Amino acid sequence: MKKLYRSKENKIIAGVCGGIAEYFNVDPTLIRLIWLLLTLGMGFGLISYILAWIIIPLEPEHKR
């Protein structure tokens, strides 16, 4: 069973976009671009990133 975690290896700020990309098995750059467009276009990207940073747990040391 897959779980969503913030990435420890694929991160720029907090690993949120990297973790989402790993969960959906897509390129992290694509997720970062979508997040940037949400931030610039609609204005709620930054708030949702901070909320995701708080809500999504950090990747454990040994994933299964």
Task: Name its key features.
64 residues, 55% helix, single chain, mainly alpha
Describe the overall structure.
The protein has 64 residues and is an all-alpha fold. The protein has 3 helices and no strands. Helix 1 crosses helix 2 (28-42). The protein has helices at residues 16-24, 28-42, 45-55. 55% of the residues lie in helices and 0% in strands. The radius of gyration is 12 Å and the shape is globular.
Short description:
This protein has helices spanning 16-24, 28-42, 45-55. The chain has 64 residues and is mostly helical.
Topology record:
Elements lengths: L15 H9 L3 H15 L2 H11 L9
Mean pLDDT comes to: 87
What structural class results from the helix and strand content?
mainly alpha
Q: Topology as H/E string?
A: HHH
**Low-pLDDT segments, ≥5 res:** none
Strand content: under 5%
Number of strands: 0
Number of distinct helices: 3
Shape: globular
User: Rg, please?
Assistant: 12 Å
Distance between the termini: 9 Å
Biggest pleated-sheet summary: none
Name the helicity range. Answer: 40-55%
